[in-house]
Specification:
alpha/beta, TIM Barrel, four-stranded parallel β-sheet, binds zinc ion
């Protein structure tokens, strides 16, 4: 299993192309979306299309996660700003999909979330990525990025890309096609992170999850026993 994740969208053109290609490949993915891009209150011609893309993601079995409202570096913000950035985005996602997001990715990655940030984000689970960061937002070399991804992926990896660049979407498709040939299947972050839970364990909102390898219980916590 590999979880491909796409940050900073949706994008009216590239996210649509990506969803088409995921559908063709029967692949599931996770989208960490920026709240202001899907906020009906924003006077932006792209918003309506972006909201329809969120509805399509949900209908097609993808996971929608929280990537803050303004793409804010959370550890540099105040606690009340962090709360607003996350809660406003979760409310908008819930308004569109009927469900609050279970996962969040801090802009800039885990090094930019302090424990106090994760406490505010709780019960959302903080998700980063494993292996290479292709820096696809500045790199335009698809072949190089595909090679980096294919070489670094293991069973349980989380791959980071951004769905607002044509080159990133192309990279995802080529990497998936090569990995599918090696027997990988492409699942949401929720499917991947739940693989070892069984009935006894749960994810811990105070941890940062960058992968979930087979049988790895190290970042899981035992469920509290229910009172009889
Ligand atoms: Zn981002």
């Amino acid at each position: 299993m590999v979880a491909f994740t796409f940050d900073d969208g949706p994008d009216p053109v590239q996210t649509k192309r990506l969803l088409d290609g995921l559908q063709e490949r029967n692949a599931k993915a996770t989208f960490f979306v920026v709240g202001m891009k899907i906020d009906p209150e924003q006077q932006d011609v792209r918003t309506k299309t972006n909201i329809q893309l969120i509805q399509r993601m949900q209908a097609e079995g993808h996971e929608i996660g929280n990537h803050t409202y303004t793409h804010c570096y959370l550890s540099q913000a105040t606690p009340s700003q962090v709360y607003k950035e996350l809660s406003k985005t979760s409310q908008i996602i819930e308004m569109i999909t009927g469900a609050k997001p279970k996962y969040m990715r801090p802009p800039g990655g885990g090094s930019l979330t302090a424990p106090w940030v994760r406490k505010i984000a709780s019960p959302m689970i903080t998700v980063c990525w494993s292996g290479v960061d292709t820096r696809d937002w500045e790199c335009r070399n698809v072949t190089k990025m595909v090679d980096q991804i294919v070489k670094s992926v293991r069973d349980g990896s989380i791959v980071l890309l951004h769905d607002n660049y044509a080159t990133s979407v192309e990279t995802a498709f080529q990497a998936m096609d090569r990995l599918a040939g090696e027997g990988y299947r492409f699942v949401t972050v929720d499917t991947l992170l739940s693989r070892n839970l069984g009935t006894e364990y749960q994810l811990n909102p105070m941890r940062i999850y960058s992968a979930m390898y087979p049988g790895d219980l190290s970042k899981l916590q035992k469920k509290e026993l229910q009172n009889a």
